[in-house]
Design a protein that fits this description.
Distance between the termini: 24 Å
Order of helices and strands: HHHHHHHHHHH
Largest sheet: none
Strand content: under 5%
Structural class: mainly alpha
Length: 217
């Protein structure tokens, strides 16, 4: 089986295993997803989802984020970690939205990544989930780990991993493929002691057969 054939087989297997896979950040509009994704850096989605209800109520618009007092924003997001840097980026990002996009979240990779605190990962999350635009593949810690374990890439840098995955996965599945890997990483293929014995895609995983019982790390 070629790498491309394995990638397509994985898509079919993951679709059966996780038919309801979706972004697990809570949001109601593109701005909320943009802010939640910025907050999710080095933080769990569950923690972000605990913080965002009060934050979204306090700041319903990009202008509200741009004008909120830094100390107040820091207080609201403190439990997500790195809160000072995140607060600075959020305020600058939303100031850019107000100045250049009339307060609206843009729909292109170039415009999004030109905003403070927004890289390809964040832009891909927003474009794929808020707008249904498959511009790339989200590469977070789960996608990085699993794409290597599944031998879909030998790269370790997120941008290079994304480039490899974009060559293997049909474009219309780029956003979904990220969700599938993230869900599998959270539910089965853990960083330590992955559940290879119960893995739904074990026959397609080269790493599962390296040692008896499956991969140990």
């Amino acid at each position: 089986m070629t790498r491309r054939e394995r990638a397509l087989a994985l898509c079919a297997a993951f679709a059966r295993t996780y038919p309801a896979a979706h972004c697990e950040l809570n949001y109601r509009n593109p701005l909320e997803l943009l802010i939640a994704t910025i907050l999710s850096a080095q933080c769990t989605d569950k923690r972000v989802n605990l913080v965002t209800p009060a934050l979204f109520a306090c700041c319903p618009t990009a202008r509200a984020y741009a004008e909120i007092e830094p100390a107040e924003l820091e207080r609201l997001i403190q439990s997500t970690g790195f809160f000072r840097a995140k607060a600075k980026n959020i305020r600058a990002c939303c100031a850019g939205l107000v100045e250049k996009h009339a307060g609206h979240v843009p729909t292109s990779m170039e415009e999004l990544t030109a905003l403070a605190g927004v890289g390809r990962k964040t832009a891909n999350v927003v474009l794929g989930n808020a707008f249904g635009i498959d511009a790339g593949v989200v590469v977070d810690t789960h996608v990085r780990r699993l794409s290597n374990r599944l031998a879909l890439t030998k790269q370790t840098h997120p941008v290079k991993i994304e480039q490899d995955l974009m060559k293997l996965i049909p474009r219309e599945k780029w956003t979904l493929f990220s969700h599938w890997l993230i869900w599998h990483g959270r539910r089965r293929c853990f960083a330590r002691n992955p559940d290879c014995a119960g893995c739904e895609v074990r026959p397609l995983c080269p790493s599962a057969f390296k040692v008896p019982g499956g991969r140990k790390g």
